[in-house]
């Protein structure tokens, strides 16, 4: 490994440096402006101009966000669906059925095992929590056997741990798993959730019979939640269902939702992660600029710590979810998670990129010869860059990129410090605009560890 520090930047003719960094798999880098951060301001005029330009470019008014003051950075927490699905058999599988016991155990661990401390705050129930029928007043009720304390009791418990509680409902006549839908009951359901002390609603879109029903339902529930006066993050699947008819109106969606699913459900497989990344990059012109504080594209749950992804693939999911400014909702079993997966999910530097206050979603910059380069602008003129080797045959591959091609030419003017964050943190040192960065990236084939 060669890392290089040049302490006479900006003097003399441009030097073309080739730096070798032996780094592996779904690599993530953070590029900071060296002049500003490390050596004080040497060319104030230039830096000021750059800063000014950056402010103009990056603060172009996006679409108006839902005006509830929530999700100013992507939501972080835990959501039961991918790992526990609709397991309602507490007789046979008491430890993995959808029940208050499961959520209480997760709440305890979120508090005791450092999850809350790094930002995972929302503990979210997905489908299959309900009793099959509403009560005599038309209110939803939790299955009494599996949730004997009711949702309110669970919310109190979750709040006592310093966490927030999320719940699930559906804009249509039934939830996807066939439990009572909210159609015709939006106001009652919003009030019920607020009365129980719920802090987030995931609103699904199954069993909806028309586009109007879908659109009006999502809007109606947003307004109903706001009218309760309680702060409730509103997580939508509106565009995912809308795509079946025509391209969604993302400007409208951002006005009503704090985050929104665009694409298929994540599964515990590399194919699923690749499909999500492909869909996102193919549609980046439509969806990247719409994201920002208060409203985010949601590529679905983190499946790190489960069964289907190799280590390199887990690193890749974490790196890319940070670049995409995605909600970080883990779906795994915090009781049995490996120390390695836990450390990855709790990586503070990567979380800081995901939660960067500038709130700009990243995008795929380049794909060539099965290598993808993604980048994301960060606050304080820094950039995050992720590289993925999608080749599923062969060993680690070298890839060289010119620094000048990153960050729309502005990631490293005239020089910068590059720190590798994943798969392991390492200072790569000082670079100039004219430098090359040479990295080694593991393939994402299964079984690499
Ligand atoms: C799907 C949704 C999943 C999960 C499931 C529950 O439509 O996309 O994330 O909520 O329904 O039935």
Describe the protein's architecture and organization.
The chain is of the alpha/beta class. It has two domains: 29-35 and 364-441, Immunoglobulin-like, CATH 2.60.40.1180; 76-356, Aldolase class I (TIM Barrel). Helices cover 31% and strands 20% of the residues. The chain is built from 15 helices and 17 strands. It has helices at residues 34-38, 44-58, 81-84, 100-112, 115-118, 150-160, 186-196, 211-228, 238-242, 250-256, 270-282, 284-287, 311-323, 339-345, 348-354; strands at 18-21, 27-33, 76-79, 122-124, 164-170, 200-204, 233-236, 259-261, 296-298, 328-330, 363-368, 371-377, 383-389, 397-402, 415-422, 426-432, 436-441. The strands form three sheets. Strands 9-8-7-6-5-4-3-10 form an eight-stranded parallel β-sheet. A six-stranded antiparallel β-sheet has the order 11-12-13-2-15-16. Strand 11 and strand 12 form a beta hairpin. Helix 7 (186-196) packs parallel to helix 8 (211-228). The chain is globular and about 70 Å long. Mean pLDDT is 88; it is low at 1-24 and 35-61. The structure holds beta-D-galactopyranose. It comes from Suricata suricatta (Meerkat). Catalyzes the hydrolysis of glycosphingolipids and participates in their degradation in the lysosome. InterPro entries: Aldolase_TIM, GH, Glyco_hydro_27, Glyco_hydro_27/36_CS, Glyco_hydro_b, Melibiase/NAGA_C.
């Amino acid at each position: 490994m060669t890392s290089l520090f040049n302490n006479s930047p900006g003097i003399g003719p441009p030097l073309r440096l080739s730096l070798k960094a032996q780094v592996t798999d779904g690599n993530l880098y953070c590029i900071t402006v060296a002049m500003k951060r490390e050596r004080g301001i040497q060319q104030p005029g230039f830096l000021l101009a750059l800063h000014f330009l950056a402010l103009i470019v990056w603060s172009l008014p996006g679409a108006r966000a839902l005006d509830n003051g929530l999700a100013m950075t992507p939501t972080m927490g835990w959501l039961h669906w991918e790992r526990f699905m609709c397991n309602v058999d507490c007789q046979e599988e008491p430890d993995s059925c959808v029940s208050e016991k499961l959520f209480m155990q997760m709440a305890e661990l979120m508090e005791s095992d450092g999850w809350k401390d790094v930002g995972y705050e929302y503990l979210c129930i997905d489908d299959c929590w309900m009793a099959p029928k509403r009560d005599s007043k038309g209110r939803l009720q939790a299955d009494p056997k599996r949730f004997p304390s009711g949702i309110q009791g669970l919310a109190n418990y979750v709040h006592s741990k310093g966490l927030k509680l999320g719940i699930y409902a559906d804009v249509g006549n039934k939830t996807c798993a066939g439990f009572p839908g909210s159609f015709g009951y939006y106001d009652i359901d919003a009030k019920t959730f607020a009365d129980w002390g719920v802090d987030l609603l995931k609103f699904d879109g199954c069993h909806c019979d028309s586009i109007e029903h879908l659109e009006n339902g999502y809007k109606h529930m947003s307004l109903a939640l706001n009218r309760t006066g309680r702060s409730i993050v509103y997580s939508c699947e509106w565009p995912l269902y809308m795509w079946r008819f025509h391209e969604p109106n993302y400007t409208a969606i951002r006005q009503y939702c704090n985050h929104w699913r665009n694409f298929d459900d994540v599964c515990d497989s590399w194919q699923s992660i690749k499909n999500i990344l492909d869909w996102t990059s193919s549609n980046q012109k439509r969806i990247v600029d719409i994201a920002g504080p208060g409203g985010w594209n949601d590529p679905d749950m983190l499946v790190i710590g489960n069964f289907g992804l190799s280590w390199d693939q887990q690193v890749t999911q974490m790196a890319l979810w940070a670049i995409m400014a995605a909600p970080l909702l883990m779906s795994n079993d915090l009781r049995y998670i490996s120390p390695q997966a836990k450390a990855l999910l709790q990586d503070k530097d990567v979380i800081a990129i995901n939660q960067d206050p500038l709130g700009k979603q990243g995008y795929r910059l380049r794909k060539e010869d099965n290598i993808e380069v993604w980048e994301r602008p960060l606050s304080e003129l820094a950039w995050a860059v992720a590289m993925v080797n999608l080749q599923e045959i062969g060993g680690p591959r070298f890839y060289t990129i010119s620094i000048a091609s990153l960050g729309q030419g502005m990631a490293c003017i005239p020089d910068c410090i590059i720190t590798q964050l994943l798969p392991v943190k390492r200072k790569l040192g000082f670079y100039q605009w004219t430098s090359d960065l040479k990295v080694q990236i593991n393939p994402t084939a299964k079984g690499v560890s």
